[in-house]
Design goal:
This protein is of the alpha/beta class and about 375 residues long. It has 2 domains: about 5-155 and about 290-360, FAD/NAD(P)-binding domain; about 160-285, 3-Layer(bba) Sandwich (FAD/NAD(P)-binding domain), CATH 3.50.50.60. Helix content is about 25%, strand content about 25%. It contains 9 helices and 18 strands. A hairpin with a 2-residue loop joins strand 12 (about 260-265) and strand 13 (about 270-275). The protein starts with a helix and ends in a 9-residue tail after the last helix. Bound molecules: flavin-adenine dinucleotide. Flavin-adenine dinucleotide (FAD) binds next to helix 2, strand 2, strand 4 and helix 9.
């Protein structure tokens, strides 16, 4: 056989086939939010065969970017103001248009899949996922995928205020059904003051949460609100004396009474009722009740995390181990990155870094030492 053909054959066999004879992608991306979608497009643009696994189709993990039901995202200059579900449809359409002409060739393969576990496989990663919605709470179909490099861009889930929560609800949507009714609308629950504060100019903002995070939200709310009230929902506020002194000087009210009920009409949240029966009304409501990183599938990896569980990354977007050394071939992007701003353009930018770094990690030779 011609030497060039033999070399090419060897390369194709080495790069496109896993031991199990299964197709092996160059780069797998977990998550189709702004970070994952950009990572996939950037890696595809470098000629890679990219797999995107996204939970949105098969689970309630829809992604933060696709949340806002009626409030258009308007701080992304590349698209006209657009609601979350429309943005999702447009991203999905774009990725589907990049389907590779043949398996192994450059392209993007998009699959609805909730990733359950990632492990080291032959020369890369094995990714086990649930590829159908749960059937009576059980996994209906499992598939395993293989890739040489991995970008994790699965974001996080926001914590929700414990108001009218169904303790028997097993899934998030069931558990927080009433809260969700008022979420993602112009006058509903907000989760990001920088994103939605502009909806209530000069209005009265109620912020639900405790500690440093909720006070940070109050600091952000000053750009928009005429009046700010912090509701701790029955918990101690956990503010330092300095914070308390500033809150008092700035006329920020702090109410620690437990909240028992929403007061709303349709999907519009108007107020809440305290346990003592008193009703409280405001123009905008924001919750900051912490977050849950979507990284359960990384249980086989010992990674360096921030106190809230987000992942520390190195200069080339690689996940770091607790000793600061990079986890080879595993890249992280978007909201999951510790210390990054939690915004769409930031997520897309880090997705581009991670997608290109993942692609570059597959090159056969580099600049000589
Ligand atoms: C209500 C709201 C309004 C916002 N408004 C704005 C705004 O106006 N402007 C702005 O810039 N930012 C806004 N943000 C912030 C912005 O949405 C996020 O910063 C951005 O979406 C982060 O992108 P990401 O790709 O990292 O994560 P996400 O957008 O959260 O996407 C994560 C993806 O990973 C998938 N996933 C999760 N778990 C798994 C799994 N196990 N297997 C497979 N896939 C999985 C999800 O399905 C999802 O598609 C808002 C956020 C919220 C919640």
């Amino acid at each position: 056989m011609d030497r060039a053909i033999a070399l090419r054959y060897e390369l194709v066999m080495q790069t496109k086939t896993s031991i199990a004879g299964k197709r092996r992608f160059d780069v797998a991306v977990i998550g189709m939010g702004p970070a994952g979608a950009q990572a996939a497009v950037s890696a595809w643009h470098q000629g890679r065969d990219v797999l995107v696994l996204d939970a949105g189709e098969v689970s309630q993990r829809k992604g933060r970017a696709y949340w806002s039901k009626s409030v258009p995202l308007e701080d992304i200059p590349f698209v006209s103001p657009i609601t979350g579900p429309r943005l999702r449809a447009s991203v999905q359409e774009r990725l589907r248009s990049l389907q590779p002409p043949a398996p192994g060739e450059s392209g993007v393969t998009l699959r609805g899949a909730y990733v359950l576990r990632v492990s080291r496989g032959d020369g890369g990663f094995e990714i086990e996922a649930s590829t159908k919605p749960l059937l009576r709470g059980e996994i209906a179909e499992r598939e395993t995928f293989a890739a040489r490099a991995l970008v994790v861009a699965s974001g996080f889930e926001d914590g929700w205020p414990e108001i009218e929560v169904d303790p028997a609800g097993r899934r998030m949507l069931e558990r927080y059904r009433t809260v969700f009714r008022y979420a993602g609308n112009g006058s509903g629950w907000h989760l990001c003051i920088r994103c939605d504060g502009h909806l209530h100019p000069g209005g009265h903002f109620a912020l639900v949460g405790v500690g440093e995070e909720i006070y940070e939200a109050a600091i952000g709310a000053q750009d928009f609100a005429g009046r700010i009230t912090i509701l701790t929902n029955g918990r101690p506020h956990a503010f330092t004396p300095a914070v308390l002194a500033q809150a008092e000087a700035r006329d920020i009210e702090i109410d620690t009474r437990p909240i028992v009920r929403h007061i709303g009409r349709g999907t519009e949240l108007r107020g809440v009722q305290f346990a003592d029966g008193e009703e409280f009304y405001a123009d905008g409501f924001l919750a900051d009740e912490g977050l849950e990183p979507n990284t359960g599938f990384l249980q086989d990896f010992d990674l360096w995390r921030s106190p809230d569980g987000l992942l520390r990354v190195g200069d080339s977007s690689e996940a770091l181990r607790p000793d600061g050394s990079p986890e080879p071939g595993l890249f992280v992007a978007g909201d999951l990155v510790a210390g990054a701003r939690k915004l769409i353009a930031t997520a897309a930018a880090s997705g581009q870094d991670a997608g290109l770094a993942a692609s570059d990690s597959l090159r056969r030779w580099t600049y000589p030492d």
